Amino acid sequence: MIEKKYEITYATLTDKGERTQNEDSLGVERYSDGFMFVLCDGLGGHGKGDVASDFIVKNLLARVCRQEQDVETAIMKSQEMLLEKQKEEDAQDSMKTTLTCLNITGEQARYIHVGDSRVYHFEGGKVKDRTLDHSVPQMLVNIGEIKESEIRHHEDRSRLLRVVGSAWDIPKYQLGNIIKIGKKTTFLMCSDGFWELIDEKEMCKTLKKSKTPQEWLDGMQKIVLENGKGSNMDNYSAIAVFVR
Protein backbone atom coordinates (compact mmCIF):
# COMPACT_ATOMS: atom_id res chain seq x y z
CA MET A 1 0.00 0.00 0.00
CA ILE A 2 1.04 3.63 -0.53
CA GLU A 3 2.72 5.22 2.47
CA LYS A 4 0.49 7.79 4.18
CA LYS A 5 3.43 10.17 4.54
CA TYR A 6 2.94 11.26 0.91
CA GLU A 7 -0.18 12.54 -0.79
CA ILE A 8 -0.34 11.80 -4.50
CA THR A 9 -2.66 13.98 -6.57
CA TYR A 10 -3.03 14.25 -10.32
CA ALA A 11 -4.90 15.94 -13.16
CA THR A 12 -5.39 14.95 -16.80
CA LEU A 13 -5.91 16.80 -20.06
CA THR A 14 -6.63 15.63 -23.60
CA ASP A 15 -7.84 17.65 -26.57
CA LYS A 16 -8.05 17.20 -30.35
CA GLY A 17 -6.37 20.55 -30.97
CA GLU A 18 -7.20 21.80 -34.46
CA ARG A 19 -7.60 18.29 -35.89
CA THR A 20 -10.90 16.52 -36.61
CA GLN A 21 -10.17 13.54 -34.35
CA ASN A 22 -8.32 12.94 -31.10
CA GLU A 23 -5.99 9.95 -31.43
CA ASP A 24 -4.45 10.41 -27.97
CA SER A 25 -5.67 8.25 -25.08
CA LEU A 26 -4.87 8.30 -21.39
CA GLY A 27 -5.94 6.59 -18.20
CA VAL A 28 -5.21 6.53 -14.49
CA GLU A 29 -6.01 3.84 -11.95
CA ARG A 30 -5.33 3.40 -8.26
CA TYR A 31 -4.89 -0.18 -7.14
CA SER A 32 -3.66 -2.15 -4.13
CA ASP A 33 0.04 -1.50 -4.83
CA GLY A 34 -0.16 2.13 -5.89
CA PHE A 35 -0.96 4.20 -8.97
CA MET A 36 -0.71 3.42 -12.67
CA PHE A 37 -0.69 6.29 -15.20
CA VAL A 38 -0.76 5.60 -18.96
CA LEU A 39 -0.68 7.98 -21.95
CA CYS A 40 -0.54 6.99 -25.62
CA ASP A 41 -0.50 8.93 -28.89
CA GLY A 42 -1.90 6.99 -31.84
CA LEU A 43 -0.08 7.40 -35.15
CA GLY A 44 -2.58 9.30 -37.27
CA GLY A 45 -0.66 8.94 -40.50
CA HIS A 46 -0.90 5.17 -40.27
CA GLY A 47 -4.67 5.02 -39.68
CA LYS A 48 -6.60 3.70 -36.68
CA GLY A 49 -4.24 5.45 -34.27
CA ASP A 50 -7.15 6.17 -31.95
CA VAL A 51 -7.98 2.45 -31.81
CA ALA A 52 -4.38 1.52 -30.99
CA SER A 53 -3.89 4.14 -28.27
CA ASP A 54 -7.20 3.30 -26.55
CA PHE A 55 -6.51 -0.44 -26.79
CA ILE A 56 -3.07 -0.16 -25.16
CA VAL A 57 -4.22 2.18 -22.36
CA LYS A 58 -7.12 -0.10 -21.39
CA ASN A 59 -5.06 -3.29 -21.66
CA LEU A 60 -2.20 -2.00 -19.54
CA LEU A 61 -4.45 -0.68 -16.78
CA ALA A 62 -6.41 -3.95 -16.67
CA ARG A 63 -3.31 -6.15 -16.62
CA VAL A 64 -1.36 -4.20 -13.99
CA CYS A 65 -4.18 -3.01 -11.73
CA ARG A 66 -6.63 -5.92 -11.89
CA GLN A 67 -4.69 -8.94 -13.13
CA GLU A 68 -1.62 -8.05 -11.04
CA GLN A 69 0.90 -8.47 -13.84
CA ASP A 70 4.19 -6.61 -13.59
CA VAL A 71 4.40 -3.63 -15.93
CA GLU A 72 6.97 -5.10 -18.33
CA THR A 73 4.97 -8.31 -18.79
CA ALA A 74 1.81 -6.26 -19.26
CA ILE A 75 3.45 -4.20 -22.02
CA MET A 76 4.66 -7.28 -23.88
CA LYS A 77 1.25 -8.98 -23.61
CA SER A 78 -0.55 -5.81 -24.74
CA GLN A 79 1.82 -5.50 -27.70
CA GLU A 80 1.11 -9.13 -28.67
CA MET A 81 -2.64 -8.57 -28.41
CA LEU A 82 -2.46 -5.42 -30.56
CA LEU A 83 -0.61 -7.36 -33.27
CA GLU A 84 -3.36 -10.01 -33.13
CA LYS A 85 -6.01 -7.30 -33.41
CA GLN A 86 -4.22 -5.93 -36.50
CA LYS A 87 -4.41 -9.37 -38.14
CA GLU A 88 -8.09 -9.79 -37.26
CA GLU A 89 -8.94 -6.41 -38.78
CA ASP A 90 -6.48 -6.67 -41.70
CA ALA A 91 -4.70 -3.59 -40.35
CA GLN A 92 -1.05 -4.71 -40.11
CA ASP A 93 0.16 -1.46 -41.66
CA SER A 94 -1.86 0.70 -39.29
CA MET A 95 -3.05 0.67 -35.67
CA LYS A 96 0.20 1.86 -34.04
CA THR A 97 0.87 4.09 -31.04
CA THR A 98 3.45 5.62 -28.74
CA LEU A 99 3.37 4.65 -25.05
CA THR A 100 4.32 6.22 -21.75
CA CYS A 101 3.46 4.73 -18.39
CA LEU A 102 4.34 5.75 -14.85
CA ASN A 103 3.98 3.33 -11.96
CA ILE A 104 4.16 4.59 -8.36
CA THR A 105 4.34 2.01 -5.57
CA GLY A 106 5.20 2.79 -1.97
CA GLU A 107 7.99 5.36 -2.03
CA GLN A 108 9.20 4.45 -5.53
CA ALA A 109 8.30 5.45 -9.07
CA ARG A 110 9.37 4.11 -12.43
CA TYR A 111 8.44 5.02 -15.97
CA ILE A 112 8.60 3.19 -19.29
CA HIS A 113 8.18 4.60 -22.79
CA VAL A 114 8.14 3.81 -26.50
CA GLY A 115 8.10 6.55 -29.15
CA ASP A 116 8.10 10.32 -28.63
CA SER A 117 5.49 10.86 -25.92
CA ARG A 118 7.45 12.00 -22.87
CA VAL A 119 7.70 11.68 -19.11
CA TYR A 120 9.35 14.59 -17.29
CA HIS A 121 10.62 14.18 -13.73
CA PHE A 122 10.88 17.34 -11.61
CA GLU A 123 12.38 17.80 -8.14
CA GLY A 124 11.87 21.04 -6.26
CA GLY A 125 10.36 22.70 -9.33
CA LYS A 126 13.29 21.90 -11.65
CA VAL A 127 13.60 19.29 -14.39
CA LYS A 128 15.73 16.42 -13.13
CA ASP A 129 15.26 14.04 -16.05
CA ARG A 130 13.10 13.19 -19.03
CA THR A 131 12.62 10.30 -21.39
CA LEU A 132 14.58 10.46 -24.64
CA ASP A 133 12.41 10.21 -27.75
CA HIS A 134 12.68 7.24 -30.07
CA SER A 135 12.74 9.57 -33.07
CA VAL A 136 15.05 10.72 -35.87
CA PRO A 137 15.71 14.18 -34.32
CA GLN A 138 16.56 12.66 -30.92
CA MET A 139 18.99 10.29 -32.66
CA LEU A 140 20.61 13.30 -34.34
CA VAL A 141 20.96 14.97 -30.92
CA ASN A 142 22.50 11.80 -29.49
CA ILE A 143 25.22 11.75 -32.17
CA GLY A 144 25.84 15.50 -31.88
CA GLU A 145 24.47 16.62 -35.26
CA ILE A 146 21.77 18.97 -33.88
CA LYS A 147 21.05 20.64 -30.54
CA GLU A 148 18.26 19.45 -28.26
CA SER A 149 16.47 22.77 -28.73
CA GLU A 150 16.15 21.96 -32.45
CA ILE A 151 14.03 18.83 -31.89
CA ARG A 152 10.77 20.77 -31.53
CA HIS A 153 10.87 22.25 -35.02
CA HIS A 154 12.89 19.65 -36.90
CA GLU A 155 11.44 18.57 -40.27
CA ASP A 156 11.70 14.89 -39.27
CA ARG A 157 10.24 15.28 -35.77
CA SER A 158 7.35 12.92 -36.61
CA ARG A 159 9.61 10.11 -37.84
CA LEU A 160 9.64 7.52 -35.06
CA LEU A 161 12.13 4.67 -34.68
CA ARG A 162 10.07 2.63 -32.21
CA VAL A 163 6.31 2.28 -31.68
CA VAL A 164 3.84 -0.15 -30.15
CA GLY A 165 2.10 -2.08 -32.93
CA SER A 166 5.19 -2.80 -35.06
CA ALA A 167 6.62 -6.30 -34.71
CA TRP A 168 9.37 -6.56 -32.07
CA ASP A 169 12.10 -9.17 -32.26
CA ILE A 170 13.27 -7.86 -28.87
CA PRO A 171 11.45 -5.59 -26.39
CA LYS A 172 11.49 -2.03 -27.75
CA TYR A 173 10.32 -0.22 -24.63
CA GLN A 174 12.79 1.78 -22.56
CA LEU A 175 12.78 1.30 -18.80
CA GLY A 176 13.73 4.25 -16.60
CA ASN A 177 15.62 4.05 -13.32
CA ILE A 178 13.79 3.54 -10.04
CA ILE A 179 13.05 6.96 -8.51
CA LYS A 180 12.73 7.49 -4.77
CA ILE A 181 9.86 9.95 -4.45
CA GLY A 182 9.73 12.79 -1.93
CA LYS A 183 7.47 15.69 -1.03
CA LYS A 184 8.75 17.81 -3.91
CA THR A 185 8.58 15.16 -6.64
CA THR A 186 6.49 15.99 -9.71
CA PHE A 187 5.88 14.18 -12.98
CA LEU A 188 4.51 15.34 -16.32
CA MET A 189 3.50 12.85 -19.00
CA CYS A 190 2.62 14.35 -22.38
CA SER A 191 2.21 13.69 -26.09
CA ASP A 192 4.32 15.54 -28.65
CA GLY A 193 1.37 17.82 -29.46
CA PHE A 194 1.83 19.20 -25.93
CA TRP A 195 5.61 19.34 -25.38
CA GLU A 196 6.38 20.74 -28.83
CA LEU A 197 4.48 23.92 -27.86
CA ILE A 198 5.90 24.53 -24.38
CA ASP A 199 9.55 24.40 -23.37
CA GLU A 200 11.03 23.18 -20.10
CA LYS A 201 11.62 26.72 -18.80
CA GLU A 202 7.90 27.50 -19.17
CA MET A 203 6.97 24.17 -17.55
CA CYS A 204 9.09 25.02 -14.49
CA LYS A 205 7.91 28.63 -14.28
CA THR A 206 4.26 27.53 -14.35
CA LEU A 207 4.92 24.72 -11.87
CA LYS A 208 6.37 27.10 -9.28
CA LYS A 209 3.18 29.18 -9.40
CA SER A 210 0.83 26.20 -9.07
CA LYS A 211 -0.56 24.69 -5.89
CA THR A 212 -2.34 21.78 -7.56
CA PRO A 213 -1.82 19.57 -10.63
CA GLN A 214 -4.94 21.07 -12.20
CA GLU A 215 -3.61 24.60 -11.76
CA TRP A 216 -0.36 23.54 -13.41
CA LEU A 217 -2.08 21.91 -16.37
CA ASP A 218 -4.38 24.92 -16.82
CA GLY A 219 -1.39 27.26 -16.87
CA MET A 220 0.53 25.15 -19.36
CA GLN A 221 -2.51 24.67 -21.59
CA LYS A 222 -2.79 28.45 -22.01
CA ILE A 223 0.80 28.55 -23.26
CA VAL A 224 0.25 25.57 -25.58
CA LEU A 225 -2.86 27.16 -27.10
CA GLU A 226 -1.16 30.53 -27.56
CA ASN A 227 1.92 29.02 -29.19
CA GLY A 228 -0.07 26.65 -31.40
CA LYS A 229 -2.92 28.87 -32.53
CA GLY A 230 -3.50 28.71 -36.28
CA SER A 231 -0.82 26.07 -36.89
CA ASN A 232 -3.19 23.11 -37.46
CA MET A 233 -2.43 22.04 -33.90
CA ASP A 234 -2.01 18.35 -33.28
CA ASN A 235 -3.93 16.50 -30.57
CA TYR A 236 -2.36 17.27 -27.20
CA SER A 237 -2.59 15.38 -23.92
CA ALA A 238 -0.93 15.48 -20.50
CA ILE A 239 -1.03 13.97 -17.03
CA ALA A 240 0.38 15.97 -14.11
CA VAL A 241 1.29 14.12 -10.91
CA PHE A 242 2.20 15.79 -7.60
CA VAL A 243 3.82 14.01 -4.66
CA ARG A 244 3.50 16.30 -1.65
Structural notes for this entry:
This protein has 6 helices and 11 strands. It has 244 residues and is an alpha+beta fold. The chain has a single domain, classed as Phosphatase 2c, domain 1. Strands 2, 3, 4, 5, 8 and 9 form a 6-stranded antiparallel β-sheet that branches. Strands 1-11-10-6-7 form a 5-stranded antiparallel β-sheet. Helix 1 runs antiparallel to helix 2 and helix 5 packs antiparallel against helix 6. The longest helix is centred in the N-terminal third of the chain and has 18 residues. The mean pLDDT is 95.
Summary of the model, kept short:
The protein has 244 residues and is α+β, with helices and mostly antiparallel strands.
3D shape: globular
Distance between the termini: 17 Å
The residue-averaged pLDDT reads: 95
The first-level CATH class name: Alpha Beta
- Give the count of structural domains: 1
The CATH superfamily title: PPM-type phosphatase domain
| Uncertain residue ranges | none
Helix content: 25-40%
Helix-strand string? EEEHHEEEEHEEEHHHE
Portion in beta strands: 25-35%
What fold name stands as the CATH topology?
Answer: Phosphatase 2c, domain 1
**Largest sheet properties:** 6 strands, antiparallel
Per DSSP E runs of 2 or more residues, the count of β-strands stands at 11
Give me the CATH architecture, please.
4-Layer Sandwich
In DSSP terms, counting alpha (H) and pi (I) runs of 4 or more, how many helices?
A: 6
What is the structural class?
alpha+beta
**CA gyration radius, whole angstroms:** 17 Å
